[in-house]
From TrEMBL:
<keyword id="KW-0175">Coiled coil</keyword>
<feature type="transmembrane region" description="Helical">
    <location>
        <begin position="38"/>
        <end position="61"/>
    </location>
</feature>
<feature type="coiled-coil region">
    <location>
        <begin position="102"/>
        <end position="129"/>
    </location>
</feature>
<keyword id="KW-1133">Transmembrane helix</keyword>
<dbReference type="InterPro" id="IPR010445">
    <property type="entry name" value="LapA_dom"/>
</dbReference>
<keyword id="KW-0812">Transmembrane</keyword>
<keyword id="KW-0472">Membrane</keyword>
<feature type="domain" description="Lipopolysaccharide assembly protein A">
    <location>
        <begin position="25"/>
        <end position="84"/>
    </location>
</feature>
<protein>
    <recommendedName>
        <fullName>Lipopolysaccharide assembly protein A domain-containing protein</fullName>
    </recommendedName>
</protein>
<keyword id="KW-1003">Cell membrane</keyword>
<dbReference type="Pfam" id="PF06305">
    <property type="entry name" value="LapA_dom"/>
</dbReference>
<dbReference type="GO" id="GO:0005886">
    <property type="term" value="C:plasma membrane"/>
</dbReference>
Amino acid sequence: MMKKQGRLITILILALIVVVFAVLNVNPVAINFGFTTVDWPLIIVIVVSLLIGAIITFLAATGSSLSQRKAQKQWTKEKADLEQGQEAKIKAAVEAEQVKQKATYDKLLADKEAELHEMNAKMKQLMQSKEV
């Protein structure tokens, strides 16, 4: 709230300065446009010059702002592309590791099953030799 009041007071003070400046500068001034000459009050010349300068500044700032936005949009797209590429690489690496782990697990399982089968065969053989 105080910030808005401060701005309002600043605007009012600047407006008062402009009004006093305008009242003090009403003398006509000759302006030569090359093809014609006009006599305008000095304050009009000052205000028109100020407005032209403000418009040029606004256009320059807008152009700079637009190019910054365009660059930011491009960087955001590049970032998203890089992140997507990294995610794809990570997913592929995880899947490759899972396949490798599954192959190792399947081999270990097959070895254990073969070992179990051998033990069962030996146990049957021992049982048969005990019966005889």
